[in-house]
Amino acid sequence: MKYLIFAAIVITVLSCSEKEEHQSPETEKPANENIASLNKEQIQNAGIKLSLPEKKQVSEILKLNGKIDVPPQNIVSISVPLGGYLKRTRLLPGTPVKKGEILAVMEDQQYIQLQQDYLTGKARLAFLESDYVRQKDLNKNKSSSDKIFQQAESDYFSQQVMMKSLYEKLRLAGINPDKLSKDNISRSVNIYSPINGYVSKVNVNIGKYVSPTEVLFELINPTDIHLALKVFEKDLDKIKKGQRLLAYTNNNPSKKYECEIILISKDLSIERTAEVHSHFEKYEPGLLPGMFMNADIELNRRTVLVLPDDAIVTFEEKQFVFIPKGKDNFEMKQVKTGTSENGFTEIITKENFDEQLCVVKGAYSLLMLLKNKSED
After folding, report:
1. What CATH number does residue 85 fall under?
2. DSSP-based three-state secondary structure for 154
3. 94 and 192 both lie in a single domain
4. Distance CA 117, CA 114 (A)
5. Range(s) of the domain holding residue 253
6. Whole-prediction pTM value?
7. pLDDT of 73-120, one tens digit each?
8. Residue 155 contacts residue 91 (beta carbons within 8 Å)
9. Which range is least confidently modeled, 31-45, 48-62, 174-188, 337-351?
């Protein structure tokens, strides 16, 4: 019985000893785990350089995205008020056009009839005018009854109304009534461009009959294009009319386009965004409607403490800087960062960093040294 008790004690002691030996490497923490120690050769190879933080003016940048839009007054739908058959056109989507240029030639027998009615009515109007003047003189001398004079007057004024109506119909059809005569009656009319721009849509083909309600072409005047941006509800109070912004495309982010905010929508979409319209300061032919763009809006400027971007390293989603700690030693210190601009980042810390030297070059090498040290 004594042997059994002794054996149990020995086994218990040995197992506890083994457990302590097995656990001790895991529980033991390396000393100075945030301190990187380097010799002079390592410092030289890592390119370590120290500098004091600087005070600079930085701006909070609000980043937005959207696309180029065209205001309704710069989109023109071309139709034929009286209808007709398309006889000729050279237009394709993207074709540039100038104001007054012939877009298409339309043909229909009603154009002939309209011109005939106008010239016939014009000749009748001259006859009725002469008869009206004659009956007026006769009525003054009582050589003609009032009834005959009133009939002549009614016919004359009715013909004037009809002629005015035919005159406007001809103008609507694209025919100049002032130049119309029996020798130049035409079965076709020309459709002219009302603006300078380019063709965005072509909805017809040669020989097709087009009714007055159909749209033949759609023209766009791109000189007054807008940039429509989406702004989230939480950022709406940061922007205002007249504010300046810089827009750029994903393909060429280095090329900036200056814009000015001209309108802020008062309605929120399902995604809780509002549309903000901005106007380009200078028209660029390369900017096309529907093109997606990004924009940066500069908000309030302030003076803050900054370090170069290379001085700040990120580890486990936290930001750190390295400061000298004695000879050839560098301590990794956690900081909070703010606005970044032109290669510098704002440093936010409760401690006074104004006179604190920091590693501005080689910080990443120090981080790699610490990580390798912790893995060992």
Report:
1. 2.40.50.100
2. helix
3. yes
4. 5
5. 62-72+221-301
6. 0.58
7. 889 999 998 899 999 999 999 899 999 999 999 999 999 999 999 999
8. no
9. 31-45
